[in-house]
Amino acid sequence: MALKRTTVYVEADDLAVIKEAAVREGVSEAEIIRQAVHRAALARRQWDEPFFSRTYPPVSGEVTDTESATEEMWREKAERYRNTRGSAA
Known about the structure:
89 residues, Ribbon-helix-helix protein CopG domain-containing protein, CopG
């Protein structure tokens, strides 16, 4: 991948940490900064499709919308509660 040159202003304390890390790790300061920029870019990237997507049809009776899923969750919680309380609940 081709690299592009840019100017970045950083605080002196941050630059000092980068300089120390570069010496300690035996890499250039630029490499540390490139890695940080790459991680920042990935963290803010907008993907065209969701990370997890269905590639199979929904199971019969499966809840597919958020509101129904929330209602189903509360029904299951209520049922578990009733089961722990016995038939009096």
